[in-house]
Specification:
About 55% of the residues lie in helices and about 5% in strands. The chain has helices at about 1-25, 55-70, 75-90, 90-95, 115-130, 135-150, 170-190, 190-210, 235-250, 260-270, 295-310, 320-330, 360-380; strands at about 40, 50-55, 100-105, 110, 170, 210, 215, 220, 280-285, 285, 295, 345, 355. It starts with a helix and ends with a helix.
Length: about 375
């Protein structure tokens, strides 16, 4: 499997570096109003007059900053300009309460709620900009964390969904906070960020991971008891936790090593469809083909497969080269290189109407993990 996997990993990385990054750096930024576009059309041109999620701005800043640091593009000037835009337009009062939720194309605030998921990606962008030497990023990160602890901290554990304490509570924002705190620690070596990550790992083990059924629970009541009447399983998130737990362990933190394998095997068992790709949502009895599948679960499937391959290369569920082939045959089967079809229906037919910018972050992490696999194999 190793030779075929290395070739597949190089193929995906090269697509990201040679096709996706140049296209999105050229067409993905609004030089008139500032900020990144929410989506491109299938011709590669921007979709105008669409509200902009602040989390997408943060994801793009992170992606272009990190890609520059890896030598994959010269995108730091673009990321710096976008961080100026984010700070000025989406972080009122210098970020004393983190970031707002939604901006207009002209940069006006359309929704000033403080959403936990948004704050997680704001912190991830700050981690990247700290590494790039932007002094504001550390201050903004610490102000945001202070706001979270002051206004959103929940006595049952974790943080509330937003500043209106909406229900149900979700594991997803906490998963990305776990990612962000690790990134902040890597950027600063400040132990407090790692302690924050420790708290989130404990929350994952105690509340989010259902040991008995081997699944990741998504929705919770105010006291973090499972909201069973609203519960669905997202195999992509289960795969994403495999990747995050590996990253956490590489920081020297202890991880119950049975959990990543359980997550991977259960996500594969419940979530793969007739093409051996991951569907979006499943019931515990199996996938609901009518709900179809998006592209981002496949990036998490690939990342998790590469992690599992490090210690269990003979795992019957691993076909990394085959997975990459299917990604190219389905999601990348478009006239313009560097784009993707975000969604297919339950029969595998493409149904996406445009190409969301939010997914570039997922491709970056997949390409980065693929590169790590290649480097590990070359050093054996």
């Amino acid at each position: 499997m190793t030779k075929d996997t290395v070739i597949a990993c190089a193929r995906l990385r090269d697509w990201f570096v040679q096709d996706a990054l140049p296209l999105w750096s050229a067409n993905g930024y609004d030089h008139h109003h500032g900020g990144f576009y929410e989506a491109l059309g299938f011709s590669g041109t921007p979709i105008h007059n669409r509200a902009r999620r602040v989390r997408v701005q943060a994801r793009q800043i992170y992606t272009f900053t990190q890609s520059t640091q890896l030598g994959w593009c010269a995108g730091d000037a673009l990321a710096a300009k976008a961080f100026d835009y984010l700070f000025d337009k989406a972080c009122p009062d210098g970020g004393n309460r983190g970031c707002v939720h939604l901006l207009s194309e002209e940069g006006e605030v359309l929704d000033n709620r403080r959403d936990l998921y948004d704050q997680a990606f704001l912190l991830l962008a700050c981690a990247a900009r700290i590494q790039a030497g932007d002094d504001r990023a550390r201050h903004l990160a610490d102000k945001t964390i202070s706001f979270l602890d002051k206004e959103l901290k929940n006595t049952a554990g974790g943080w509330s969904e937003n500043d209106s304490a909406a229900l149900p509570r979700r594991q997803n924002p906490h998963m990305h906070l776990f990612e962000a705190f690790m990134a902040l620690y890597e950027a600063t070596k400040d132990q407090q960020y790692l302690i924050n990550a420790d708290d989130l790992y404990a929350l994952f083990v105690e509340k989010f991971f259902d040991t008995k059924r081997g699944v990741l629970l998504e929705f919770f009541d105010s006291d973090l008891s499972p909201a069973e009447d609203q519960q669905t399983i997202e195999p992509g998130h289960m795969m994403e936790w495999v990747w995050l737990l590996d990253r956490y362990q590489k920081l020297g933190r202890p991880v119950d090593e049975t959990i990543p394998k359980k997550l991977f095997l259960r996500a594969f068992e419940l979530g793969t469809d007739f093409q051996k790709l991951l569907v979006g949502h499943v019931a515990l009895s199996g996938p609901d083909a009518g709900k179809g599948r998006r592209v981002w679960p496949q990036t998490e499937f690939l990342k998790a497969s590469l992690i599992i391959a490090q210690t269990d290369a003979r795992n019957d569920q691993l076909d990394i080269a085959g997975l990459v082939d299917k990604i190219f045959e389905t999601y990348f089967d478009l006239p313009v290189a560097g784009l993707w079809c975000d969604q297919h229906d339950g029969n595998g037919a493409p149904v996406a109407k445009d190409v969301p910018a939010s997914i570039l972050y997922h491709w970056f992490e997949a390409a980065k993990q693929a590169t790590s696999y290649i480097n590990d194999e070359e050093n054996l």
